[in-house]
Specification:
The protein is α/β, with parallel strands linked by helices and 369 residues long. It is 38% helix and 17% strand. The protein is built from 13 helices and 13 strands. The strands form two sheets. A seven-stranded parallel sheet has the order 3-2-1-4-5-6-7. It has a six-stranded parallel sheet with strand order 10-9-8-11-12-13, sandwiched between helices.
Length: 369
Amino acid sequence: MVLSSSAGTPAAGEEGLALWCSPVADLGGVARHILDVLTAGVPGWRIMLVCPDGPLAQRARDLGAAVMTARVSPADGARCAVRELRRILQRLRPDLLHTHLAFADLVGVAAVAGLRSGQGQRIRFVSTEHGIAGAQGYYQSSRAAAVMKTGAHRARLHRTDAVIAVSDSTREQIRTQWGSGAPITVVRNGVVVPAEAERTPGLRVLSLSRLAPEKRIDRLIKAFARVAAEHPEARLTIAGTGPEEQTLRSLVAASGLQSMVEFPGYVEAASALASHDVLVQLSDWENLSYTLLDAVAHGLGVVATDVGGNAEILPSRCLVDGADPHAVATAITRQGLEISVRPDRAESRLGPVAEMCSGIAHVYSGVFR
């Protein structure tokens, strides 16, 4: 690889090397983003992924991507993760380090300090923020931990060359909570849009998320009971796994809905979306949900809470107060039976994965100016 000696950017016709770091190994939303980028490619750049051993690494290998596994997860501890990542950076000497999720952001800024690329230039540092909540401390166990993490991120932004936010809402939360220590660019998640399928009315309702308290699936069950009382043909699939599964199963039983509700565990999103009519997501917070993007792309009705970046995907007729079971039930019924009120691809501004990758490339170019 040859770099321009004057500016330190990849020379014309040559590719730069970007090391992507994910601290999680599971196939969640961040893994989806990473795999989409590895599949489509970032124009002008080679991407190498470093992550803990697990499903993400295996899926990336299946794609033919360059992958290194290392102890860079929260379970390994920050000191270990910094040491592991710094060792890899010293070995590969990439042009740029790109981290995903808060733990990797803090580890990355420490690991990259003082290191040089293969061409003797300072290694640039970029982070993508996928999950910063509007309620401060949402992802921390205590107020003290939240204050400490906020201070750490405020400090590390001053040593970050560029930040990518997945939505306008995420950008505003970064500025509000962490300050303006680095330039922030919004690059929305891109999706593969399937061919237009015939949409038919129906009340096959789907929840497609981790079974965790913040997803508020209990509220969906309570609202669905109202739907089922008026439409006995309605069915609810609660897909996914998580700590709330037994609690949710007990609520279904107590509501007398066992014959109408299914818990299939993990399912492939595309097949689940193809066999349902309405996707419901009553989360406390979302940044730019792939589940909602995919639901719109597949022509489903959608019901979601008006939080985070949801309003950037969905029209107001799809947004509800999750604590109001009557409002949720009414929206589910309408989205299921009235095809004309379902969100369409144009108003949701769905963008392709290639557009997302071009946006990332544009950010990379900017950090070398």
